[in-house]
């Protein structure tokens, strides 16, 4: 397969770069890669072969290798092929020749991937409830510090071709001290200040062994997991909406909306004010964090470096369930939120559906199935009834399988119930996971007893 596609690719490259190729026969603009002062052109057929070749190479990479996503590998392969072609090392011929050419191409590709897959510490500005004021937090290898602490320790590489960096750029970012003295310092301070936005803290996530773009993507997943763990410890579902990574998707503090009534314009707004903890609440949260520290470290290490912890699969499963729950808490549509929260319980139970979820909750919450678990909703709800409604009757299955399509039906109450029960289950399963030494298997949370 690889040799055949490679042979087709080489023939197309010779055809496209012979000097008299008719580009009017192609449907798109010429596709090329600059190689020094010349260009290596690719026909549409060459790009098809390149894509097939890249997919096969990605699928058959030996482990452990530097991690890279398929599309990024194909883009990198295009550049590697262009240089190899003009250097005369892409040679087509009999089977032994093609095997040698394939080996050379794979070695060059892996060498290029290695250049783009170093150890990188990603920095994510975040909005929090203010708990970082009591001091830095560590979650496994992840560090949460204030913006001021990060600015004080970060350094910028000197550029011999530009002005010397004015040390005052750090004070300019923080909005204190004198103005910076030169253009370069002003550019850096403005860029950093814009990226930080209104965030008061940053998460520093170190990722090793991933290609640059994939590294950033994975680092963000880990950062969001850490932030969601901290939101879970608050035991207030609304906090998931308040704490987040500061980026283009962050909600503004003031979001006006318009409506018309009796022919007249109305303007209203939905405030998105920060959720701030008092000093006593910060102390209480830090005490809670300390109680869960071992479990949190295990989960985060399990995400970043599966080889250093027990039960890495369960760490992945728990963090995935948390992600579904957090997205459910952030979801504006109540019906979709119920589906996401129900999915969180399904993931945590190892795909147990209604029966598996119920068995898991009986163990984690230490309740009987006919025992009341929720009060204040007009009736005393047993665990069995809650799971039936949340997962099957009107919840996850009903929403995702299309049983409920009435958009006027309210899911607000069921959402609140789901947030309470799933939040308790995630907290208790996190607590138990820290000291768990049993089998690393999908259904472990159904039988994971407290130690």
UniProtKB/TrEMBL annotation:
Top-level taxon in the UniProt lineage: Bacteria
Annotated protein name in UniProt: Apea-like HEPN domain-containing protein
Organism: Stenotrophomonas maltophilia
Lineage of the organism: Bacteria, Pseudomonadati, Pseudomonadota, Gammaproteobacteria, Lysobacterales
């Amino acid at each position: 397969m690889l040799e055949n596609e490679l042979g087709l690719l080489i023939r197309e490259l010779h055809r496209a770069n012979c000097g008299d190729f008719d580009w009017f026969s192609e449907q798109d603009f010429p596709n090329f890669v600059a190689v020094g002062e010349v260009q290596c052109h690719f026909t549409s057929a060459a790009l098809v072969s390149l894509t097939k070749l890249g997919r096969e190479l990605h699928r058959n990479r030996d482990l452990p290798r530097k991690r890279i996503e398929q599309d990024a590998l194909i883009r990198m392969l295009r550049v590697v092929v262009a240089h190899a072609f003009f250097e005369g090392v892409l040679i087509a011929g009999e089977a032994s020749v093609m095997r040698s050419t394939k080996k050379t191409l794979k070695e060059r590709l892996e060498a290029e991937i290695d250049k783009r897959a170093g150890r990188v510490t990603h920095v994510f500005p975040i909005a929090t409830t203010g708990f970082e004021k009591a001091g830095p937090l560590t979650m496994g290898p992840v560090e949460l510090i204030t913006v001021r602490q990060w600015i004080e320790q970060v350094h910028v590489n000197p550029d011999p071709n530009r002005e010397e960096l004015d040390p005052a750029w750090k004070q300019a970012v923080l909005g204190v001290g004198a103005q910076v003295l030169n253009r370069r310092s002003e550019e850096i301070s403005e860029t950093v200040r814009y990226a930080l936005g209104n965030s008061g803290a940053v998460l520093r996530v170190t990722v090793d062994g991933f290609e640059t773009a994939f590294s950033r993507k994975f680092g963000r997943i880990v950062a969001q997991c850490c932030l969601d763990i901290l939101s879970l410890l608050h035991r207030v579902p609304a906090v998931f909406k308040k704490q987040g990574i500061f980026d283009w998707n962050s909600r503004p503090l003031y979001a006006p909306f318009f409506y018309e009534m009796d022919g007249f314009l109305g303007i209203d707004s939905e405030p998105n004010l920060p959720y701030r903890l008092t000093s006593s609440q910060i102390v209480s949260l830090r005490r809670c964090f300390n109680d869960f520290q071992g479990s949190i470290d295990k989960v985060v290490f399990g995400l970043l470096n599966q080889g250093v912890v027990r039960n890495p699969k369960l760490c992945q499963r728990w963090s995935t369930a948390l992600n579904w729950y957090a997205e459910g808490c952030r979801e504006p549509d109540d019906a979709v939120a119920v589906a996401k929260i129900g999915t969180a319980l399904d993931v945590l139970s190892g795909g147990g559906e209604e029966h598996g979820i119920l068995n898991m909750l009986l163990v984690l919450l230490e309740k009987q199935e006919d025992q009341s678990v929720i009060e204040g909703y007009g009736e005393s709800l047993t665990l069995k009834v809650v799971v039936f409604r949340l997962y099957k009757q009107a919840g996850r299955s009903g929403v995702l399988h299309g049983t409920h399509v009435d958009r006027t039906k309210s899911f607000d109450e069921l959402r609140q119930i789901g947030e309470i029960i799933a939040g308790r289950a995630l907290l208790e399963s996190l607590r138990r996971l820290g000291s768990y030494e049993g089998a690393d298997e999908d259904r472990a949370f159904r039988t994971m007893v407290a130690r």
